[in-house]
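Format notes (please read before filing issues)

Several people have asked whether sequences and structure tokens are stored in separate files. They are not. Every record keeps both together, in the order shown below: the sequence lines, then the token lines. Line labels are part of the format and must not be stripped during preprocessing.
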Amino acid sequence: MASSLLALLDDIATILDDVAVLSKVAAKKTTGVLGDDLALNAQQVTGVAAEREIPVVWAVCKGSLVNKTILVPAALLISVFVPWLVTPLLMLGGAFLCFEGFEKLAHKFLHTAQEDAAHEAELMQALADPAVDLLALEKEKVKGAIRTDFILSAEIIAITLGTVQTQSWTTQLAVLSTIALLMTVGVYGLVAGIVKLDDLGLYLNRRASSLAQAVGAGILWAAPWLMKLLSVAGTAAMFLVGGGILVHGLPGMPHWEGLAALALDGGVGVLAGALVLAAVTLLLRLRAK
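Then the structure lines:
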């Protein structure tokens, strides 16, 4: 009996060790989606009253958990019954990451700063209109953020599934559930902190202490730059992660190491994003006709 119990404990420890290692690998591979997820969800709260920012983030977080509750079992069913579909889904996820990254670049170069400023001013003017139903607008923001989260969560789950595809069913379940929970808590915990940075800066800036005022002013100055940094880092990571998935999935691609591998992944990511964006634009124009 004692030896059986020790063997069982040893098996459990081995499984947990495998889960920890595979979860770490999967987390590294999903950093591209994570950076974009942070920037995108922080931007979704723009225009919401300060006292409603945390409730909105919490509402989107709950929606994200529901999304992953749907996606994790779906991924496991695919892995068990149609495992050949994992690689195509992973390739689609990588192509979508590249497309999303290139679309951001295209938007930056095709739209002037004046157009973006005019759009933001129009949004703020609408929010200031007393006739606008702010509660309805908030609900629409939450719904839109949850829809976006579903796509990003699907990418995270697809990338994670590709990492654990050869493992046992129980290990797949444990790793997918761990990544789903960690990503949700991590992303929305950080989003909540980011959207409250300006409030913290204002609070410190109004204190009597000159040190607190200096720290508050620094936070207020750094907050918008942090958003820009997250956006840039997220876009770069999309090309690297998406391109890396395509490089490893396409036959005949070289497998380099170090900086050469990063350059190859990034180059393939940019090229794939441009091709997908061109194809989508063409299809939309044909459909419009």
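For reference, the curators noted about this record: The mean pLDDT is 75. The chain has one domain: 2-288.
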